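Troubleshooting entry. The earlier prediction with zinc ion gave an output that would not parse, so I re-checked the input for stray whitespace and re-submitted. Clean input:
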Amino acid sequence: MTKIPKIEMQAAVLVKQLRPLELIKVKLPDKLYEGQVLVKIGYSGICGSQLGEIDGIKGPDKYLPHLLGHEGSGVVLETGEGVTTVKPGDEVVLHWRPGKGIQSATPKYHSSKGIINAGWVTSFNQYGIISENRLTKISSNLSSDILPLFGCAATTALGVIENNANLLPGQNIMIYGAGGIGLNMIQLAKLKGAKNIIAVDLHKNKLQLARECGATHIINTSQVDNIRSVISSLLGSDKLDTFIDNTGNTKVIELGYDIVASTGKLILVGVPKKDEKIQINTLPLHFGKQMIGSEGGNCDPHKDIPRLIEYTETGKIDLKMLISQIYPLEKINKAINDIRTGAISGRAIISL
Ligand SMILES: [Zn+2]
């Protein structure tokens, strides 16, 4: 057990589902257990998963009240017993996919609202006790506000394009939902040499950004009546090799299943609400069509984060483009609202 100094911090806490996050003073535990790492968090991203947690899409949440956020960046202040992959002073990315190192016990924080629970990684808090295997040490000259994207958005995008889609040069891909992850997928599809990259969204500002990221075609669903005919006239005699759904909308998933080539892949990244179901005829699945539920792109943080940093440093991808706005922690509910309304095109970053 490693003693740590008394720290009180500001954190955005999910106290009740379907309510704004509450900004409250939270006390850290005074010791680190095996595999735990104390991190001063600099920036955090907000992703669809946290919106889903707030909305309760998976049903009742037995851990309330709790911290949240699963992509961030920061500096290691102290390490618990057994930690070997990071040391005090290291700059780190916080990620939700497990990587190298120990998976520690989860911490419990204290506040005037009682105990505040937390998972192996949380990032809507100024300091965090993070499990060693949710941290990756990095060394780069990139500005630290883009680093959170390596914790979820960029690694998921890379994993979906490489591991799930196995996208090859000359293939055609449709990316439905052009938010932070979708825009990064477009950049990566371009990097892989895809022929037609079709971005679909209902927000004009996102589609504009999609074009800048490398989409060869854009479809604004708020302006088309029959999306199927638009797609077939776009593709002509080409077939659609990959359809990625980032929305979790069951109608979009059904559309993707129908229009992807008979040997193509439908990849599910967005998650439907708990009770929602899709209706498909499974026959094509016996003849080469594939439907894959992506688990964060099955990426390996310790291998993929350094690669993505190299891609960013050498200009192969541009993560700065994907960040629409940086909000102070006190404005986190405004940031969440701006994501929901589509007022911002890319990722919202929280400065802690
Ligand atoms: Zn995420």
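This one parsed fine. The chain has a mean pLDDT of 95.
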